[in-house]
Amino acid sequence: MSSAIPEGFKNEAFILYDKMEARLSPHPNPPEPGPNEVLIRSLSVGICGSDLHYMHDMALGNIKVTSPIVLGHEASGQVVAVGSKVSKFKPGDRVCYEPSITCRRCEYCLRQEYNLCIVAVTTCPPYNGSLTHYYNHHEDFVYKIPDNVSAEEGALIEPLTIAVYAAKRGDLTVGDRMLILGSGPIGLLMVMMGKVYGCTRTVITDIREDRLAIAKELGADETILVDRSWSEDETIAEIRKRFDGDLPNKCYECSGIEKNFRLSFRATKANGTCILVGMGPTEILLPIADAANREVIIKSVHRSKGCFPLSIELAAQKKVNLTKLVTHRFTLKEAAKAFETGFKGEGCKVMIKVGEDTMNTADTE
C-alpha cells in the first residue's frame, strides 16, 4: 500500500461481478505508484452508458467483461503521490484522466492515431475503473484541471472529448446544418459543439421531452419529439420540416439505437457526412444503396485522441455548460442506487461523489 494513503484506510470499490450483480465491496489499496504513474484520490465519477451496458450484458459491442471489475471511467481526482520519474504532477494537483493506455510503438500510435492502438489497455474493462477511493494511472494519460473547473466538470471532460473528437471527425465548421439523433449526454454535448464550431442550424431528436428541454437551453435551434409510431419516412419528413425542406449536411448518431443508425444514413444530405458516435448492436441491416447512391460520407468515432487539452480549455473558458448535464448526484455508498437511476433512464447524467474536493470550491452540489 502507498504511504500516501492514510494508515489503516479501508478502501472500497463498486465492483461488477456478473450481469446485474454489482455492489460496493472491500477493495485492496493500490501499491506505491510505478516510476511513471500517479496515485489519484477519486473525487467525482460520472456513470457512462457503457457502464450500464457492461452491467446489463457484461459486454458492449465486441468488448466483453470476463472477470470482476471496478466500474467507472469518467473521473476526476486529486494526485496524492507520484512515481520516481514523474515530472508533470505533484501531490495536490486536481486531474482527470484518459482511460486508454496505449503502447506508443504500433503503427497507429506512431501516426498519432493512438485511439486505434492494437494493444491498448483500457480501464473498465478489462482493467479496473475509478469507482474506488484510490487508483494509479500512467502520467502520460493524466491531465491537470484548472482551479475554476469543479470536480464534477472534471469528471465530464472525458465524455466532452468524445464530442470534440466527433466534431473533428465530421469536419464540423461554420455554416454547417447539423442533425443529432439522441439527446443523451453525448448528444447534448454535440449541441454545445454546434455552438462552438458555428453551425447555423442544430436540430436534435429524442423520445423524451425533458432531455429535449435541456437541449433547447443549451442552444439547439429545433427539437423533434419522436413518436414511436412514426415510420422511417415520417421521421425523415419531420426532419425536413426543420431544415426548410432539405436535409442536414452533418448527421451525428448519438443514441446507439438500431433504428437511428438506419435513419442517420437516410437523413444525411447527398455528399454530406454521417458520423456514428453511439455504440449499437454488433450487426444492423442498413440502407447502404441509398447512402452510396447519394455519396454520403460515413465515419465512425472510437474514443478520442488528443482532445483532452482542448476540452479542458473549453470547460475553463465556460464555452460549454457541463454542469447542466448533471441531474442526479449520489455518494459512493449510494452507487447501487445511482446505477438504478441510470437504468430507469431518469434525468441525464448521474454523478457519484467519491471524495471531498479539498482544493477547490467550484462544485455546485
UniProtKB/TrEMBL annotation:
Please state every residue range assigned to the domain named Enoyl reductase (ER). 15-352
GO BP annotations listed: sorbitol catabolic process
Q: Which CDD domains match?
A: sorbitol_DH
Q: Does the keyword Oxidoreductase apply?
A: yes
Q: Which UniProt keywords apply?
A: Metal-binding, NAD, Oxidoreductase, Zinc
Cofactor(s) this protein cannot do without? Zn(2+)
Family matches, as PANTHER family: SORBITOL DEHYDROGENASE (PTHR43161)
Gene Ontology molecular function, alphabetical = L-iditol 2-dehydrogenase (NAD+) activity; zinc ion binding
Family label: Belongs to the zinc-containing alcohol dehydrogenase family.
Cited SMART domains: PKS_ER (SM00829)
Could you tell me what this protein is called? Sorbitol dehydrogenase
